[in-house]
Design a protein that fits this description.
Elements (H helix, E strand, L loop, with lengths): L18 H15 L8 E4 L14 E4 L5 H11 L5 E6 H7 L1 H9 L5 E6 L2 E2 L5 E2 L23 H8 L3 E6 L3 H13 L4 E6 L11 H7 E3 L9 H9 L6 E8 L27 H4 L4
Parallel strand pairs: 1-2, 1-3, 3-4, 4-8, 7-8, 9-10
Antiparallel strand pairs: 5-6, 7-10
Length: about 280
């Protein structure tokens, strides 16, 4: 059976108290609980404090360009659709620079899991405002307060076709572990939005703030009910955060519908060894 220690790389260098610590442990625990080994999974990391987990998680990983982690895991999944594929990203990285890639990954229902460290700032570059910050939030890049309304990643993902949407809080390790494990097991596009305090650059969205503004979905909640899920996602911009599986449905994934993958994955197929015949057509 896999152990959490199997997935441990270098010792993290995150700030003491940062929510990244909890998210990192939850991911490793979820992978161990699912009985994966480090060689069983593919992981892509974005740029930012969350992306530094590339050094802290022992797995087949790739540290990508800013905002390009989601597009990278799509390539990983198509190349070897039999392996679980995960993106570890920040809200600025995924919802900002990578927003366009997120949209198309969602609508294609690619069988990947995207775990977002959502702290409303660009922590690695010392606290500039991120797309998820509330209107009026002050930062180094917006000293008079942000003008735009916050981006709502939950309703965005839901309305564009995500088949799994979960939300958790970095201060609750057991809950994060449970939601991440469910997301990885789900067949289809899975978004896990983790509410994560940045103790260094965000003095508003703190641990007490999220405890006060969040609540767990009760057992009577039906994640298959689209209309009910839409109501829950809209609470996000009202600073009311539902924790749990907000939406889940079963439908064909992108790789399910690729005829090229019906018999074998791309990595299992014979590859060209002599390109001379192909090149000659263009010379």
């Amino acid at each position: 059976m896999s152990l959490v220690e199997d997935f441990s790389g270098y010792n993290p260098t995150w700030c003491p108290g940062c929510g990244n610590w909890g998210i990192g442990m939850a991911l490793k625990t979820a992978l161990a609980n699912l009985n994966y080994s480090p060689s069983d999974i593919l992981v892509s990391f974005g740029v930012g404090c969350s992306g530094n987990a590339n050094d802290f998680l022992n797995a087949y990983g790739l540290h990508t360009l800013h905002g390009r982690s989601v597009s990278t895991i799509i390539g990983m999944k198509i190349a070897n659709h039999k392996m679980p594929v995960i993106a570890v990203v920040g809200d600025g990285d995924c919802y900002g620079e990578g927003g366009n890639h997120l949209l198309h990954a969602v609508r294609g229902n690619h069988d990947v899991t995207v775990i977002v460290h959502n702290n409303s700032v660009y922590g690695l570059t010392t606290g500039q405002v991120a797309p998820t910050a509330q209107k009026g939030f002050k930062s180094k890049s917006t000293p008079f307060g942000i003008i735009e309304k916050p981006l709502n990643p939950l309703s965005l993902a839901l309305t564009q076709g995500a088949s799994f949407i979960g939300q958790s809080f970095a201060g609750n390790l057991p809950h994060m572990t449970e939601i991440i494990a469910k997301a990885i097991k789900h067949k289809g596009f899975s978004l896990v939005n983790v509410l994560q305090p940045c103790v260094t650059f965000n003095k508003i969205y703190t641990y007490p703030y999220f405890i006060q503004h969040s609540y767990k979905l009760d057992e009577k909640y039906d994640p298959k009910n689209y209309d009910q899920a839409l109501v829950k996602t809209e609470e996000y911009v009202k600073e009311k955060f539902a924790l749990g599986v907000i939406y889940q449905e079963e439908r064909a994934t992108y790789t399910d519908e690729l005829s090229q993958l019906k018999n074998a994955s791309l990595v299992e197929k014979d590859r060209f060894k002599d390109f001379s015949s192909i090149i000659s057509e263009f010379i």
